[in-house]
Write a structure and sequence with these properties.
disordered N terminus, BirA Bifunctional Protein, domain 2, homodimer, alpha+beta, about 500 residues, 5-stranded mixed β-sheet, 9-stranded mixed β-sheet, Rossmann fold, elongated
């Protein structure tokens, strides 16, 4: 029976790898295999079912975690360079907190079972809990980052890197401040982050909700359709204009002439020149919100120049952002060059009215912030490491303590204790009498740079052998100088996270 | 109407602060206020309800987060010093994975709502997901740490620091190794961790499940009652022997003479001497599992001596640990001295059969590991900081860039860009023309050590003023040497997380 189950597991796996094939025979085979799998499932009990993570989620193995943690470290150090504090909120919120914040996407919220208490749901993003936190604690200004997991009951296309549980990495500035000062710093932070991750080829698109509103008004869009048409414009990064136009004139019932006028605007992008050009557009300049938007963009551009990032910024009229809550500048970073297909890897904008939705007196706290698409960044970096034929180190061990003969494990423990006391990262085999070859192989497999080898002869002479793992060079070191010698060696090593 | 709501909020708050009062009048007033609150709730809609986190959960503010992150950093650096890798698993598991692992406590599991997919539940600890991960990926050896939140639908006594969402901090070694080598390293790690957190007064109690079984057998406990009686012994850290005895002879139907014999054993603790003493006990030595347990304890003790931690370890026969899955050595660290009432702050043991519960062929992977009671550690450290009259810095800003007159904000941005490029942690006010006093006050409030002050005169002379915030000393620095001068100053500062 166990044999049969095991066979079925292999077949079941194979089934999932062949679904891409299209011939009729393969389809029939697949169906049969599926039936067989179901049959065996019924017979086996629950053990086999257990061996998976929930749909749309995954474990992270040590290689993945090593990369993720090092990337997060870099990002956090940039957030801290800009003086950010950190907060944390519970993974679930009262359902009411989330209701009415995400529009259509509310159906993707994970509810908790009512077990005779409050009605709870897993957080969908970090922005709404942040706004709830500000309102609840009556905080009127803060600069904070928050890196944590969020949950969306999406139908994940996992090959595209979309999961139901994924990490968000947010930085926001809340407070009543002067125009564009916090906003431009957010762009500077995106710039610094992507540079620090060696993602040099990128572009930050910027736009302004007021300008978009002005354009819609100038084109003759009825005001009640602004947000709706904004959603259509938002699709332009993935969808050609012709299809977006069809949506506007079709289900969104816009006049063809109005759609065409929108089309002439949203195809434009550039830099400072575009601002000047739009200033000359008399029809647009009749719209107060367009003037307001352009003034803001001009100031933003000036600050971007001062922050020396304007060469990476594009003023793009087709940028709209999906979320309803944005009220001012909006932005989105995309990779260019080799990684052009990856899509948006950072985005954000100003949302001045969200905190007020939680306040009894509707007191608002103006906010601007950004979210790094950290999962996409991980995928890009993982691929780049693989392409370079490198491996990520999963530990930081500097010294492996090995023995060349039997029954020397107590000496290993004595040395390890000394090394740990001296803050040297060190490990040993948990076997009493491991083979020397196995121990040295472990060092090579894990990129451990140094090994100490204890032998009976050396022990008598008060010495140990110090081996450089990569070059396989060995020298003898007096036992009493060991820690000092190791410290020197370690400080001169170029410790790399890859090998 | 808004006025009324606001008044009620104040009253409602006051209601919650007066519940401790006991006079009848106060009770009646409270009842009335509660009714009034309910009335206004019905009229107001949901806004007011939103302003809380779910029962048993809390937000962490920047002060709390700064402490938590610095403590976790220290702990992780110790785990890494011992060569640990990191893994991560989803926050929820298929419900079946958790079923049948926690005994009575299974009722505390948070279920997710069935929204037409899999039946899911939030993880209850990190150990069961770890075992599932090992079995699923057929991993036979790993040394890993995992710091993450877990969920228990407990009725939290929040003043005692028990929450429904809390952080666990686990280190485990899985693999078929030689006796006590991984086990003793776990104790060494607990030792190093508590030392590094300046929690010098602690004691690590150790015991062995086999020895306990041997004692129960020697005392005449029927074998089917071993685990059940073990649970009773486990209560001895909080409950006097007389009550535990009553439970044993009462609901657990043990003979009084048997309970009394158990009592003579579990009152014993000591070091190596206790091992020797128990060896002389002929009746106990007739039990093979007692001999096995004592052999293990003897070896463990030897390794503890070699690891130079035996002065912090106590062999304690009353230590039993609640969880069923332990199969060998068990341990628990408690604070002594000033923090004696805090309870257990680390615990763990060997569990050799848990992974097998997930494997189709019941293949086991022996494991030993420990969990730091990190929430209790935070509470102790928070109190200690408060007692010393210190504040925790919530940012790491090294330099604040201030202006002394109006319209110098562009110069601030230029300088900030230079500082950030040089990796100096720096910030400014987001107001165009902030008052100098407000800017300097911000530095003092946040423990920022250095400030640059830009004035019109200095600007013309190509200079800036550099101020040491604490001493309020000011010097003039040529603008072109600014970064160099700051780097020197910063490297000579003793940057502290407290001020």
């Amino acid at each position: 029976m166990l044999q049969l189950i095991f066979t079925n597991r292999i077949l079941a796996t194979r089934y999932y790898t062949t679904v891409v094939a299209t011939t009729q025979i393969q389809k029939e085979v697949s169906k049969l295999l599926e039936l067989k799998t179901q049959l065996s499932d019924e017979n086996v009990g629950s053990k086999k079912h257990l061996l998976k993570t929930p749909k749309g989620t995954r474990d992270y193995n040590p290689e993945q975690m090593a990369l993720r943690l090092s990337v997060m470290d870099k990002i956090v150090s940039i957030f801290k360079k800009h003086g950010a504090e950190s907060i944390d909120t519970p993974i679930f919120e009262l359902k009411d907190v989330l209701t009415g914040k995400y529009g259509e996407d509310s159906k993707l919220i994970y509810d908790l079972k009512d077990q005779g208490g409050e009605i709870l749901a897993l957080r969908y993003d970090l922005t709404v809990p942040f706004a709830r936190y500000l309102a609840m604690n009556k905080i009127t200004n803060i600069k904070r980052y928050h890196i944590a997991k969020v949950y969306r009951r999406d139908n994940p296309a996992m090959t595209k890197g979309r999961y139901r549980e994924f990490c968000q990495c947010d930085f926001d500035i809340a407070g009543q401040y002067d125009p564009m000062l916090p906003d431009s710093e957010c762009l500077r932070i995106i710039y610094e982050t992507l540079k620090s991750l060696d993602l040099e080829s990128f572009n930050i698109k910027v736009n302004h909700r007021c300008l978009l509103d002005g354009i819609f008004a100038a084109c003759g869009v009825p005001q009640e359709k602004f947000r709706n048409i904004c959603s259509s414009v938002d699709k332009l990064d993935k969808t050609p204009w012709e299809e977006v136009r069809k949506e506007m004139t079709g289900e969104k019932e816009l006049k063809e002439s109005v759609a065409d006028r929108i089309g002439t605007y949203v195809s434009q992008n550039g830099g400072k020149n575009l601002i000047e050009e739009l200033r000359k557009n008399e029809e647009l300049m009749k719209q107060p919100s367009a003037v307001q938007g352009l003034d803001a963009m001009e100031l933003l551009w000036k600050y971007c120049e001062l922050y020396q990032i304007s060469d990476k910024v594009t003023f793009d009229l087709s940028l709209a952002r999906g979320l309803d809550y944005y009220t001012g500048v909006i932005f989105e970073a995309v990779l260019t060059g080799d990684n052009v297909g990856v899509g948006s890897i950072a985005g954000g904008g100003r949302y001045d009215n969200l905190v007020g939705m939680f306040d009894v007196k509707n007191r608002n706290v103006p906010c601007v912030g950004m979210s790094l698409g950290i999962e996409r960044i991980f995928s890009v970096l993982e691929m780049s490491i693989a392409n370079r034929g490198k491996k990520t180190r999963t530990t930081e061990v500097e010294v492996y303590v090995a023995t060349a003969q039997k029954n020397l494990h107590e000496e290993r423990i004595r040395i390890l204790t000394e090394l740990w006391e001296a803050n040297i990262k060190a490990e040993q085999s948990y076997k009493k009498n491991p083979k020397l070859l196995v121990q040295l192989q472990h060092c090579e497999d894990h990129g451990i740079p140094l090994a100490i080898i204890i032998g009976e002869g050396e022990l008598k002479r008060g010495e140990v052998t110090l081996r450089t793992v990569k070059s396989r060079e060995e020298t003898t070191v007096p036992r009493e100088n060991l820690v000092e010698e190791l410290k020197n060696r370690i400080s001169s090593l170029e410790l790399s996270a890859e090998y």
